[in-house]
Amino acid sequence: MRKMVVLVMVLLGFFVLGDVRAMAENLSQAELDKINPLWQESAHALAEINCSSCHQDAQTKAFIAQPTYESCQSCHEQEVETFLLGKHGIRLGEGMTPLTPGMAHLPMKASATGKQMNCNTCHDVHSVNTLQASVDSCLSCHNDRHSLNYKQSKHAQLFAAQGSLPRPTAESVTCATCHLPRQERGSTVFVNHNNTFTLLPRDRMVKEVCMNCHGMEYSYNSIFDDELVEADFSEPPTQQLESLDMIRALKQKRK
Ligand code: HEC
Ligand code: HEC
Ligand code: HEC
Ligand code: HEC
Ligand code: HEC
Ligand code: HEC
Question: How far apart are the two ends of the chain, measured CA to CA in Å?
Fold first, then answer.
């Protein structure tokens, strides 16, 4: 039994180290020392997704120094497909240069002007950490009042209280909860990476997101209040939408 375990470990070591050694021919030791520990702790390492899974062309076996979204596509088809449909990814989908904050009309952090949008922009591709991707990555570029006000909201407190797991919990509300919502497709849940999807029409977010936790009236009264959106929902709603009163009146009449 013990011999089996040792044999398995030697074989595993051979494959993993062999993989790193093949990479090392193209890399400096300093780069390897930085990246190896990030990868070793990642969901990818657990699932035996190695350096070569992304850094080697499947057909030609050629080394790829800077993989793009195409290297993720074979395993994460839905994420790539949805990313390419939204504002973040559509330029890449059209074969143009990547989106950068320099092209934006919304306010952006000056330090991010030249930062190129790709899968590795929000995810550190070697740790594939989703917690950091859910808020901190967004705020490395976005600098409008709505985005900056998030940290003052009850939603942010929920995330801070629950966020220490490998993935944001279903009870916390991050930027991604509203803008990259989790969706069911068949029996699996995936993150819809189309960052335009929940914006138009505006009440799509009510059904897709808010009503998982809030009632319909509360959600509508919040989302159609421009000041409350700008405050990133850091106060309770105060307005009473007329159309909701009208729906209620209509229901009364029908009774
Ligand atoms: C999930 C896919 C994936 C895996 C697995 C992966 N890489 Fe990367 N790697 C990338 C992407 C994407 C980039 C970013 C390219 C860019 O900056 O445009 C990158 C960049 C790099 C760079 C350039 C420096 C940097 O930090 O940006 C080095 C060096 C590197 N990877 C080494 C490795 C090594 C060694 C391993 C295995 C321990 C590994 N990678 C595993 C996708 C991956
Ligand atoms: C050879 C297949 C393969 C490739 C290529 C690949 N991944 Fe993955 N990825 C996986 C598997 C398997 C998991 C873990 C199981 C799961 O959550 O689906 C995973 C998990 C993830 C996660 C979730 C991490 C977590 O903590 O739950 C992210 C984010 C991710 N991958 C991003 C990427 C990105 C970005 C690329 C391209 C640069 C990429 N992956 C390339 C197979 C792959
Ligand atoms: C705008 C930032 C951003 C970009 C760009 C981005 N991601 Fe993500 N991704 C996230 C966040 C945030 C989560 C976690 C959201 C959650 O769990 O609620 C996530 C989750 C994931 C997951 C795990 C959940 C799942 O759907 O199975 C995978 C895999 C993934 N991303 C792959 C990719 C790939 C591939 C690309 C490039 C096509 C990409 N991501 C680009 C922010 C981003
Ligand atoms: C590399 C910088 C960068 C990062 C990181 C980033 N974004 Fe963006 N985002 C942009 C740019 C640039 C635009 C386009 C703004 C414009 O056209 O004025 C944009 C647009 C948007 C839009 C508007 C989409 C539309 O159709 O109008 C939303 C919503 C958004 N981002 C949310 C997020 C969220 C949530 C995250 C983190 C999960 C995030 N972004 C991460 C740069 C970034
Ligand atoms: C509770 C849900 C929710 C959370 C959390 C949230 N947003 Fe939003 N976001 C919205 C709504 C609603 C709008 C307004 C949509 C509209 O104007 O039609 C919006 C608008 C935006 C826009 C502007 C889109 C445009 O074209 O004007 C950006 C950029 C954005 N959010 C980024 C972020 C970032 C970054 C975070 C986290 C720091 C965040 N949001 C947190 C719901 C949310
Ligand atoms: C995962 C569950 C969840 C989702 C999704 C969610 N919320 Fe919340 N929201 C909460 C919780 C929990 C609170 C805190 C309630 C409390 O403390 O009384 C809250 C608080 C609020 C508040 C009050 C803030 C305050 O300071 O009192 C507003 C407004 C709000 N949410 C609007 C929205 C809108 C609009 C959406 C959709 C765009 C949304 N929420 C999505 C769970 C959620």
Answer: 74
Q: Which of 39, 33, 37 is nearest to 54 (CA)?
A: 39
- Residue 133 Cβ inside 6 Å of ligand 3? The answer reads yes
Q: Residue 88 and residue 116: Cα distance in Å, rounded?
A: 10
Distance CA 184, CA 64 (A): 33
In the three-class reduction of DSSP (H, G, I as helix; E, B as strand; rest coil), residue 8 is classed as helix
Q: Which ligand 3 atom is at minimum distance from the Cα of 167? A: 17
Distance 114 CA to ligand 2 centre (A): 26
Take atom 6 of ligand 5 and give the residue whose Cα is closest.
Answer: 175
Q: Which of 19, 23, 53, 54 maximizes ligand 1 atoms within 8 Å of its Cβ, making it the mutation to test the pocket?
A: 54
The model's pTM is 0.93
Three-state DSSP class for residue 236: coil
Q: How far apart are CA 158 and CA 135, in angstroms?
A: 13
Hey, which residues does 189 pair with through a beta bridge? 184
- Contact partners, residue 1, CB within 8 Å, separation at least 6: none
pLDDT tens digits, 106-146 = 999 999 999 999 999 999 999 999 999 999 999 999 999 99
CA separation for the pair 202, 100 (Å, rounded) = 25
Lowest pLDDT segment from 26-30, 88-92, 167-171, 202-206:
26-30
Answer whether residue 254 shows pLDDT above 60.
yes
Q: What mean pLDDT is predicted for residues 79-95?
A: 97
Q: Of 211, 204, 188, 134, which is closest to residue 165 (Cα–Cα)?
A: 134
- Could you tell me if the CB of 175 is within 6 A of ligand 6? no
